[in-house]
Amino acid sequence: MKLGRLARGRRVLAGFWGATVVQVAAIVIDAKILKQSSKVTLMPLLWQWSRTQDAPPLLQAALLASAAGDLLLETDLQLAGIAAFAAAHACYLAVFLSNPAQRSWRVLAAYAALWAALIAVLSPGLGSQRIPVAAYALLLTATAVASRWHNTRSGLGAALFLVSDALIALRLAGRDFPGRGALTMSTYAVGQYLLTSGVTTKQDDLTGSGHRR
C-alpha cells in the first residue's frame, strides 16, 4: 500500500473515531443537532477508510447501506431505515459466507438460543412490531454467526452490533434505562469498525507479502 494512501487512511480513521466521541458526548448532553450531524458522518467515514484498505465491494456496500439506514432513521422513514440495515446485513452475510475459516455448529446453536431468548423477553412489549423485530433480529443473528466463522475480530464486531440493536429493541419494548443511548452508539460504532477491519485484516493475511509495507 502506498504511503500516501496509508496516511490518508489513518486520517480518515481518526476522523471516524473523533465523530464517534462527538456522537456519544452529544447523546450524553442531549445536543440534538450535534447528535444528528455526527451520527450521519460515522458510516461515510468508515466507508472511506475501507476503500483505503481495499475492502471488497460487498463490504463497502454494507457500509453505504448502513449510512443510508442511519440517515433514514433520523426521519419519519423508519421502515426504510430498517430495510437499509437489512440490506447491509445481507451484504455482510455474502462476504462472510464466501470465505468462512471454520464452521462451528456450537456458535450457531449458541446464537440461536440467544435469539430465541431475546424475542421471548422482548415480545410482550413490542406489540405490532413483534414480527418485524424478530425477522430483523434473525438476520442480525445470522450475521453474527457467519462473521464468527470468518474470524474472531469480525465475530466480536457483529456481537457488538447485536448488542447495539438489542438495546434499541429494549427501548421499543418499553424497557429504557439511563445511558442506553450512549451505550447503543458506542457498541454500534465499534462493532461496525471491527466487522470492517476483520475483513480487511484477513485480506492482508491472505495476500501476504504483496501488501506488506
Ends distance: 7 Å
Overall geometry comes to: globular
Helix content: over 70%
Number of helices: 8
Radius of gyration: 17 Å
DSSP summary, beta strand count:
0
Sequence stretches where pLDDT stays below 50 over 5 or more residues: 206-213
Series of secondary-structure elements, N-terminal to C-terminal: HHHHHHHH
Notes on the structure:
- One of its GO terms (molecular function) is hydrolase activity.
- Belongs to the TMEM86 family.
- By secondary structure, the protein is mainly alpha-helical.
- The protein has a domain of 146 residues.
- It has eight helices and no strands.
Overview in brief:
This protein is mainly alpha-helical. The chain has helices at residues 3-29, 32-52, 57-73, 78-97, 105-126, 130-150, 152-172, 180-207.
List the helices and strands and how they pair.
Blueprint: H1 3-29, H2 32-52, H3 57-73, H4 78-97, H5 105-126, H6 130-150, H7 152-172, H8 180-207
Helix pairs in contact: 1-2, 1-8, 2-3, 2-8, 3-4, 4-6, 5-6, 5-7, 6-7, 7-8
Features:
mainly alpha; 8 helices; disordered C terminus; TMEM86B-like; membrane; transmembrane; Lysoplasmalogenase
